[in-house]
User: Which sequence fits this backbone?
């Protein structure tokens, strides 16, 4: 009897062992299953649905969805069962949308240039600073991120107001006889957006600088190169990969500007990110809002692909 039980147990263990052997090569992929589930359910799924909504026929600005989603009684968010590219075609044909698109790109370029010009010197100064000063400077860089984004923007709004600290100081120093309009214009939008983005840019460039081999700089100096020449011929080229990553992060953040234009801009200075909720919630034009959102996503994707292509071409050239 004992022998029969042993034989039965061995026979039962063989299929289990065989199953484990077949699953073993795929074990690493099973570890990714939770992450894949989250990406599919909470990112890819909603994104695909957003794409589908952008391909519905739009009901235009139809009065807060009256008539339901089917569009009966002249309302609705979109016309169900339709497939069309009219929302994308209208975006690129309509002067209103093209002006917003153009301003978004111009604003992103402006913010990116200013941010990079300010971030690299600051990152280099942190890189060259002593240990204690370096800690203090890094704390100052990340300090704005300890507060809520809206609190930061509203605080900037108070500082730049007509009776704010900046204008009061300018009039006290007799630089200006009356308050200068510093809010609800391009200046306040740019200052706010740069302030929101620059900590990330500085940290990325600082990390890139700290990966450099300091002996290369010392060797250049030993061969007679001046500090300026050493910087431009050794430090700057070697830190360029990290600087390009910071540039990519900066321009993507700038293209998605929402809080700064919404709170510190004006109706003539609106970005695509502001137009999406306007079309979706104010005009109740879900199809057009979804199309604009996908156009923004397409812009950012093209920038990332262009960055990867340029980086790959540079590596092949080397």
Assistant:
């Amino acid at each position: 009897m004992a022998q029969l039980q042993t034989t039965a147990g061995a026979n039962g263990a063989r299929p289990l062992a065989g199953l484990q052997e077949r699953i073993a090569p795929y074990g690493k992929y099973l570890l990714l299953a939770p992450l894949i589930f989250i990406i599919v359910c909470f990112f890819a799924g909603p994104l695909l649905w957003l794409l589908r909504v952008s391909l519905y026929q739009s009901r235009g600005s139809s009065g807060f969805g009256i008539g339901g989603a089917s569009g009966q009684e002249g309302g609705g968010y979109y016309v169900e069962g339709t497939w069309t590219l009219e929302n994308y075609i209208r975006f690129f044909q309509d002067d209103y949308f093209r002006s917003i698109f153009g301003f978004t790109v111009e604003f992103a370029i402006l913010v990116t240039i200013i941010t990079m010009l300010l971030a690299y010197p600051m990152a280099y100064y942190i890189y060259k600073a002593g240990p204690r000063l370096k800690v203090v400077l890094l704390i100052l860089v990340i300090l704005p991120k300890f507060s809520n984004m809206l609190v930061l923007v509203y605080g900037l709004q108070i500082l730049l107001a007509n009776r704010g600290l900046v204008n009061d100081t300018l009039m006290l120093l007799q630089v200006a006889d009356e308050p200068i309009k510093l809010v609800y214009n391009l200046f306040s939008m740019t200052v706010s957006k740069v302030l929101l983005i620059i900590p990330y840019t500085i940290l990325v460039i600082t990390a890139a600088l700290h990966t450099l081999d300091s002996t290369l700089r010392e060797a250049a100096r030993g061969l007679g190169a001046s500090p300026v020449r050493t910087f431009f011929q050794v430090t700057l080229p070697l830190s360029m990969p990290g600087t390009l990553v910071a540039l990519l992060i900066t321009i993507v953040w700038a293209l998605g500007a929402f809080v700064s234009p919404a709170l510190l801009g004006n109706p003539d200075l609106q970005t695509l990110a502001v137009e999406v909720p306007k079309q979706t919630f104010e005009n109740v034009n879900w199809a057009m809002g979804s199309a604009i959102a996908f156009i923004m996503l397409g812009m950012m994707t093209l920038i990332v692909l262009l960055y990867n292509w340029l980086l790959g071409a540079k590596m092949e050239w080397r």
Q: What stands out?
A: The longest strand covers residues 57-58. The first helix runs from residue 2 to 23. The chain has one domain: 94-317. The radius of gyration is 28 Å.
